[in-house]
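WARN no homologs supplied; continuing
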Amino acid sequence: MEGVRDGRIGRPGSRTPSSMTGDSLLGMQEWKSESGAPWPWRDELEVGCTLEHAGYYVSWLLAMFGPVSRVTAANTLVVPDKGVPATPQQPDLKHRVLEHESGVSRA
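OK structure emitted
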């Protein structure tokens, strides 16, 4: 982050992290951690990938590029039948554009 803040690596114009929980989750009911705990797939589908994971990369983006002045978003449910009984299912493809006060945009 220091290299970004002090300009050693140039001035970033945009970044493109994204969230998608579509067919990449097929078989998720069988996933287990190293400890043997099942993966909480129902939470992922019912709460949505943005609320489950966005805090990780948004915190890094804020640390590197500063406060956000504007947010634009679009969502859709691409894979409605993931073979599991989760209802309601949240959108599984989400795009956000965060415009930072520093002038950097995240598409």
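The chain is about 25% helix and 20% strand.
OK
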